[in-house]
Amino acid sequence: MTDTHLGVTVTVRYFAAASAAAGVEQEVLSTPPGTTVAEVVERLGARNPDLARVLQRCSYLRDGMAVRDLSSSLHSGETLDVLPPFAGG
C-alpha cells in the first residue's frame, strides 16, 4: 500500500524556543495524504497558543533541506525540523 491508503507519518523535531513551547523535543504525526507543511504548522499551532506564537517566526527544514514552499506536500517517513530564529555571536 502507498501513502494514499495509509496516510502520512511525519516526525516533527523542535529546537530551542519551539521545543520549550511544545514541551517536547520531537513527536510523530499522522496526517492525511497530501497534507502540506503549512497545514502541519497550522495543526501544531492550533493545539498550543504558546507554540503558535513561536511558529510564526520559525523556519523549517524538510529532511535537512530548507522549506521554501510551505504549500508542498509531506510524505511518510520525512522529518520536519522547526527552527526558531537563533541569536549568535
Features:
89 residues; alpha+beta; Ubiquitin-like (UB roll); five-stranded mixed beta sheet; 4 helices; globular
Q: How would you sum up this structure, described in words?
A:
This protein has 89 residues and is α+β, with helices and mostly antiparallel strands. It has one domain: Ubiquitin-like (UB roll), CATH 3.10.20. It is 31% helix and 27% strand. The protein is built from four helices and five strands; from the N terminus they run H-E-H-E-H-H-E-E-E. The chain has a five-stranded mixed β-sheet with strand order 2-1-5-3-4. Helix 3 packs antiparallel against helix 4. It is globular, with a radius of gyration of 13 Å. The mean pLDDT is 91. This is Molybdopterin synthase sulfur carrier subunit. Keywords: Nucleotide-binding. It comes from Mycolicibacterium confluentis. One of its GO terms (cellular component) is molybdopterin adenylyltransferase complex.
Summarize the structure in short.
By secondary structure, the protein is of the alpha+beta class. The chain has one domain: Ubiquitin-like (UB roll) (Roll), CATH 3.10.20.30.
Layout of secondary structure:
Layout (H helix, E strand, L loop, with lengths): L2 H4 L1 E7 L2 H6 L3 E6 L5 H11 L1 H7 L3 E4 L2 E2 L12 E5 L6
Parallel strand pairs: 1-5
Antiparallel strand pairs: 1-2, 3-4, 3-5
